[in-house]
Amino acid sequence: MSEHIEHAPSRARALGTRWLGIGLATVISVVTLGLGLTGRLNLYISPESVWFACAAAVVTLAGAIWSCTLPLGEEGDHGHDHGHDHGGSTASGASADSDADAVARPRRSLALAGTVTGGVVASGVVIAALVLPPASLSVDLAMSRVGEQTALFAGADDVTLGVADTATFGVGDWASVFATATNTAAYDGKTVTLTGFVTPTDADGVNLTRLVITHCVIDAQPATLPVTIDAGEFDTGQWVEVEGTVKADADGSLHVEPTTVTAIDEPRDPYEY
């Protein structure tokens, strides 16, 4: 009976260790592969990184399968000999062991509390990844990041050198032009077809906005273009396709003068790269 009670905590500890290690990694790997196969991993990382993430998930799953061949608790066995020579025990030795155990007990309690807290948080994140559907970053986040840094996105070097084909420009590329061009007249009259969502400006105007990511959604930054649209025509966050021309104002600033603005559903891939 006492042996069963002694081994119960050890088994629970071994199960917890395996879940916090290979268990969480396995679930994340399965979620990653599922998102990759359905094309929804692009909601979190750039397309160029998808293959690497999926390959890493496959390797992790292979390691998880191999780990299942180990007996439960084997990963915690470091091969130490925990036996004691009871013949040489003395009263002073027992007292020293008791004092050392009293000092170590609070540390073990803190370590256990930290492990449990971290395990609960990590498990919550993993469960949320399983339960919640993949979604693009919110319009509120895009608006909150406006103005954090100068809009310099893909194509900025080409814009500076004046060798870019503006017919291929997206919202991020044009945002770089609008922010850095010194000869704005060179872009006056350029035709554009752009997709983004509507956000307001400080001057009761309207911006066409698109989130641009380099590696993953953590580094996402909003690219915005002023568009001549009635501020009440579309709700904030409404996705639209704008066809029109770039116009240079007398003060040298640029804006988009639309010929048609069509409300659309959010694209399957809502980001630019």
From TrEMBL:
Keywords: Membrane, Transmembrane, Transmembrane helix. Residues 77-98 are annotated as: Disordered. The keyword Transmembrane applies. The chain crosses the membrane at residues 20-38, 50-72, 110-132. The keyword Transmembrane helix applies. Residues 88-97 have a biased composition (Low complexity). Signal peptide: none annotated. It holds the Pfam family DUF1980_C. Residues 182-273 form the DUF1980 domain. Residues 77-87 have a biased composition (Basic and acidic residues). InterPro entries: DUF1980, DUF1980_C, UPF0703_membrane_permease. Coiled coil: none annotated. This is TIGR03943 family protein. It comes from Microbacterium hydrocarbonoxydans. The lineage of its organism: Bacteria, Bacillati, Actinomycetota, Actinomycetes, Micrococcales.
